[in-house]
Amino acid sequence: MSESETTTKNETHDHISQGRLKYFIGDPYSLDDPQKLTMRRKQVIIAVVALSAVTGPIGSMIYMPALLAVADDLHTSSEAVNGTVSAYVVFMGVAPLIWATLSDFYGRKRMYLSSIIIGIIASIICAFSVNIAMLVVFRAIQAAGLCASQTLGAGVIADTIPMKQRGRAYGFFYIGPLLGPVIGPTVGGVLSQYYGWQSTFYFLAVLGGILFILVALFLPETLRKDKSQADQQRSPNHVKNLLRAFIPLLLMLHDPSVLVVTIYSTVIFASLYFLASCNNPTITDTFQRLYGYNQWQVGLVYLAFGVGLCLGSILAGQVSDWVLQHLRRKNNGQLVPEMRLRAAIPSFVLIPAGYVIYGWTTEYNIGVYAPIIGLFVYAFGQMSAFTPTNVYLVDSQPGRSATAIGVNNCARSIAAAIMAIFSTQALHSVGPGILFTILAAVNVLNIAMIVTCMLFGQRWREKFASKQAEQEKEAYEKQKAHIHHDDEEHHQHRQVALEHSLARTASRHSTI
Predict the structure, then answer these.
(1) Which residue windows are transmembrane per the record (predicted)?
(2) HSE-up of residue 257 (Cα within 13 Å, Cβ side)
């Protein structure tokens, strides 16, 4: 073989190796369009991100049956052990905000792989904890790693699935995080009973390893960025550019449409934790006290609750797509994100009805099937609201979908953590009938939030986008005026980067 042929062969081999490496770690500068992937490939992607989204919720709930065992083994109080739960819940809400912003800057896949590695390492260290302080710290780090997948998954689907098909995709995606709370306590109870509480963390580490392999092999990078942004990341001002990537997060906190939908979602999610709290599970308390159920039988009740959540998620996603297409035809073919919110209308009745049925049937001990029906109705209604509103946030924030979902998740998690503290005390103070009637009334009042967004959301977004465009244009002009102070070597790259930034802003505003 000649020297030239050998050189060509080596170059080809190097090119293939580089291509494989780019796929493994993710290449946001690829030229192919992720929305043009085959349907089978998209289904695989949705399955992978849905499985990955199991880790955060199951990481929270799998640990619950072992709380007393942890207190005994580490020679501490139950209150101190509850600190590990609080640390997990707080970081479960806050950490995804950071992951979402980083994923918009570096790419989805890199953040997936990084977060899973952090979750695996923290899970192993949790199993080796020798005191409660060590466990609290690494439970927080574990949450930061395991809870990234739900926010990142929302971004992946937004990158991959066209707007008119997203409802169905998100309906299937949310089955993942919904399965976590359903199967977590059962798996955790078996593991901790037969293999010790440390085995729950080993299980999470193994699960993380499996998901790492699935993400590395079957999840392509779905974020797309232009070459000027690559120059930004390699520039001497890389840290400054990274910090600038958090600006959309801060701006989103002032977007009325995001705030109103987040408040609506927070209320319905916080209300959920009066039923299925992490620290004080009201369902468990009620069915053990009133109906004499053992832990296995209570698990079946949670299964009915979980079926309602999963079925509601799937159907709500499909209905939201149908509503969007139906209203699109009536609007001369134009899609408006607020159209999707009308798919949440059934939840206006289902959520309060489920609360009232469950509350008063347990108040008067009217058989065991009646409250289970109430739980199913409520769970179905919960997802009838949750799925369309989350997809709306993705549709209305193109290019910043992961950040929008991160803001929403953060607010919901903090509210849920607060509600979890008071659930059992409230139940014992006023009784289930009055408690869940109050929650039904709160959710009826909460309808005003989503109706207001249906009516005025588009106007709010357009006004906010116009104001933001003016501010970014002013910032662009100021930065452009300072370019001549830079070295000649960086002059062109910085100018191009600024122009691309302004162009992306204009493009994003035009799409909504």
Answers:
(1) 44-68, 80-100, 112-134, 170-195, 201-219, 258-276, 296-320, 341-358, 364-381, 434-457
(2) 27
- C-alpha 201/C-alpha 48 separation (Å) is 22
**How far is residue 166 from each of residues 33, 74, 199, measured CA to CA in Å?**
17, 47, 38
DSSP letter string, 121-168: HHHHHHHT--SHHHHHHHHHHHHHHHTHHHHHHHHHHHHHS-GGGHHH
Write the pLDDT tens digit of every residue in 461-494: 888 877 777 766 666 566 666 555 555 545 555 5
Q: How big is the chain, counted in residues? A: 512
Confidence of residue 98 (pLDDT cuts 50, 70, 90): confident
- Which is higher by pLDDT, 182 or 460? 460
CA 405 to chain centre: 6
Where in the chain are the domains? 31-216, 242-512
166: CB partners within 8 A, 6+ apart: 157, 158, 321, 391, 394, 395
Look at the block and give the residue holding tokens 């790492």: 212
CATH number for the domain formed by residue range(s) 31-216: 1.20.1250.20
Which CATH code is given to the segment(s) 242-512?
A: 1.20.1250.20
For residues 138 and 148, what is the distance between their CA atoms, to the nearest angstrom?
Answer: 16
Amino acid at 20: R
| CA dist., res. 297 & res. 372, Å (int) | 12
Average pLDDT over residues 210-216: 94
468 vs 504: CA distance, rounded Å:
13
**Residues 75, 70: Cα–Cα separation, whole Å:** 8
Question: What pLDDT is stored for residue 44 in this prediction?
Answer: 92
φ/ψ bin of 329: left (φ > 0), alpha (ψ from -120 to 50), beta (otherwise): alpha
Angle in degrees, CA 34, 35, 41, rounded to 5: 70
